[in-house]
Amino acid sequence: MTGSTGPQPPSPALGVYVHIPFCASRCDYCAFATWADRAHLAEAYLEALVRDIEGAAARGLPAASTVFVGGGTPSHVPPEQIARVLRAIPRTNDAEVTVECNPEDVTPSVVEVLGMAGVNRLSLGVQSMVPHVLQALGRSHDPASVATAVAAARTAGITNLNLDLIYGAAGESLGDWRATLDAAIDLGPAHVSAYALTVEAGTALAAEPRRHPDDDDQADKYALATERLAAAGFDWYEISNWARPGHRCRHNLLYWSQGDYLGFGCAAHSHRQGRRWWNVRTPERYIQAIRSGTSPEAGAEQLDADGRRLEALQLAIRTADGVPVEALDDDDALALDGLVVRRADRLVLTEQGRLLANEVAVRLR
Questions:
Q1: Is the pLDDT of residue 9 over 70?
Q2: Residue 156 contacts by C-beta under 8 Å, 6 or more apart in sequence?
Q3: 27, 68, 111, 346: least CB-packed within 10 angstroms?
């Protein structure tokens, strides 16, 4: 299998991530391995993905319990090609299969094709429901297209919907953010992800300090998201994620619980039993590697037992399950009063603690 060093026992749960690196345009804040000028490579790239996955399956790829197609913009390529990739992935009968989509790409015919290929969850890149905020983020859709996409998905039988939101864009008021939250809630999704806008090195946003988000403003918006989503029946279960009961994202839970997952495509990351590896970054190099029969792996690292234990705690502290009380010594627990709360034998971040999660994480032992 891609990046494997030899036969390994199957995991009780295995995730598969598929990276689609193509976009119609690049958002100012995006630092992912995506390109808006390489659509001519899409057919060859998707052919390479199928060949890579089929090779892994022939070598014993276990059935995946979760599949996540992300990017980039998976909905920027023909759905029939995404469907072909998905059909190459061995998966369990109850697998969660998610595809990220831009709202403006979602039509009845698109979701029908995806649904026939086993997709049972869509994650829509909504970001905002306020036109001038969408413009500030460099998004090309309008709020009406979100409602249209949600309706199309439901008509096709895909009711497990995530709305992906971003807060903190230049010119976004607290009222704008409230309007986005309320409009998103009114659409009745099963899951909402709300991320603070971050400034990544090398992006267009990084080069314009006047547009950088304000920490206090983002804290206020996080508090509002927590309030509004809880009132609407969503349970917080990870710093930036809320779900209705029974609809937590199983694929992301696999990441946060240090589970095993395999990544296919350029820049995709994988993890098996403490070994992490990642693929070559560009679609050209990935296509070349698969065509030549060589591994697309670009680098790897192996965590020792202590490193794995610490990483497991740093991931778990982000979640509603928290960490064992012994993960913090008494002095640190006192110093972090107000940031963590004890629930039975676990320590869980408070709302304030979620804003300062790194302060807690560096004290874990």
A1: no
A2: 108, 111, 112, 114, 115
A3: 346
Helix residue ranges, H only, 14-155: 42-58, 79-87, 108-116, 131-137, 143-155
The DSSP symbol for 247 reads: -
Is 325 in a helix, a strand, or coil? helix
Mention every residue, 6+ apart, whose C-beta is less than 8 A from residue 33. Answer: 19, 21, 72, 266, 267, 281, 282
The string of pLDDT tens digits covering residues 211-269 is: 999 999 999 999 999 999 999 999 999 999 999 999 999 999 999 999 999 999 999 99
- How does pLDDT run across 32-81, given as a tens digit for each residue? 999 999 999 999 999 999 999 999 999 999 999 999 999 999 999 999 99
Residues in Cβ contact with 166 at an 8 Å cutoff, skipping those fewer than 6 apart: 29, 127, 128, 137, 194, 195, 196, 197
Is the Cβ–Cβ distance between 51 and 89 less than 8 Å? Answer: no
Element (H, E) at 91: strand 91-101
d(CA 94, CA 30): 33
- Domain architecture of the chain: domains with CATH: 14-255 (3.20.20.70), 305-365 (no CATH)
Residue type, 239: I
